[in-house]
Amino acid sequence: MTSEVEIKDNDFLRQFEFYHNDQMARIEYSLQERKIFLTKYEMPQEMVDEGLTEPFMEAVFDEVKSRNISLVPTCVEVKSFLRKHRRKYKDLLPVGISI
């Protein structure tokens, strides 16, 4: 399902972006050493209603995984997604962090 979602890393604004039907979802981040802190999640309700939340999150998590860095979720939506998919993404958490 992630093949439907193409994300863009806007490193100037420090956010992952996903465009769909003239709307944009985003997850803001902060990079520190070998960790990425996902700090803020925003998605228009129309995109949520279309079921695009999970594919967007999966695309972001897969991107983080491909960079071989740790992920620290600091916003509620990202934490909830990680809890739901902990088996697939538990290796992204830094040592000492549990969800």
Textual characterization of the structure:
The protein starts with 6 loop residues before the first strand and ends in a 10-residue tail after the last helix. The model has no long low-confidence stretch (mean pLDDT 92). The longest helix has 14 residues, at 53-66. It is built from 4 helices and 5 strands, in the order ββββααβαα. The chain has 99 residues and is α+β, with helices and mostly antiparallel strands.
List its salient traits.
99 residues; alpha+beta; 5 strands; globular
Short description:
By secondary structure, this protein is α+β, with helices and mostly antiparallel strands. It has four helices and five strands, in the order ββββααβαα.
Major sheet: size, sense and barrel closure?
A: 5 strands, mixed
Q: In terms of per-residue confidence, which ranges show pLDDT below 50 for 5 or more consecutive residues?
A: none
| Total E-strand runs | 5
Structural class based on helices, strands and sheet pairing: alpha+beta
Shape category? globular
**Which range best describes the helical content: under 10%, 10-25%, 25-40%, 40-55%, 55-70% or over 70%?**
25-40%
Mean pLDDT: 92
* H/E series: EEEEHHEHH
- Strand order of the main beta sheet, please? 1-2-3-4-5
- The multimeric state of the shown protein is single chain
Proportion in β-strands:
25-35%
**Rg value:** 13 Å
Distance between the termini: 24 Å
The number of helical elements comes to 4
